[in-house]
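Q: Here's a chain of 314 amino acids. Please give me its 3D structure as tokens.
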Amino acid sequence: MPDLPRPLRRPLRLGTRRSPLALAQAEEARARLTAAHGLNDGEIVLVPVTASGDKVQDRPLAEIGGKALWTKELDVWLLAGDIDFAVHSLKDVETIRPAEIAIAAILPREDVRDVLVGAESIRALPQGARIGTSAPRRAAQLLHQRPDCTVVSFRGNVATRLARLAADEADATLLAAAGLSRLGESGVGHPLAADEWLPAPGQAAIAIECRASDAGTAALLAAIDHAPSRAEVMAERALLAALGGNCHSAIAVLSRWEGDDLVLRAALFSPDGAERIEGTARFAPGDAQGPARLAADLLARAAPAIADHFAGAR
């Protein structure tokens, strides 16, 4: 752990999106940093930005620029030196990041499950139910299990989606258990078993990025990096990279530990949910070839309706 000058020459600047969930995650990051280094809250200042993804909520993310819409403003500020580090929901961070930016810390991962709001289970949804989601994984996984249902495009923060549900724009919606927990809403909805409804890659993980050239800040953040969570999400991101997925690709993955090894169980879907392929791989943490082998196996067995949505199949 680095020895920090006391007092700090200036407050450290933590960039974050303005959404309630993003701010809650930034507060968690600040609390962990202050505890690790004996700082007070005033020595880490939150610097909020309204991300492009928060400004446009009437169209699916894949139609308006993909995951970069969550990160590009903070990336600009980080590279310009206007902030020292930035906090993100890792599942919203592009697989390939600028070389000048490093993921310096992964906080302890929370509950990876999705929560169904509006019914007790996928099976309990009424015939022909309308499900509000804009996530390709959730839509495809739903339609695979319940092809009688209809997907209604839902974007916005948790409060917005719950309000749209209450306004009868859909019969049910899906939210991340971790996000609800961080907002103090853990009693909302019904969690879906992760081994039956696979989560998104990186779900429930908070990432903190800094400039790759900033060794001092990287050392500061290393004190709150949670090694098991980092191993899981980096394996999941290695799988994404090998698959060559995009914002239209329906990918679900569940990580678990068996002794000192990681086991990745992944499923790929066609966008309409009609086709599904699954595979599992076991490997040592940090072994990028383990996820790559799983990706190659999945794509080799995938029907064209799935493989056409993954660059790794070409």
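Q: Can you summarize the key feature?
A: The longest helix spans residues 20-37.
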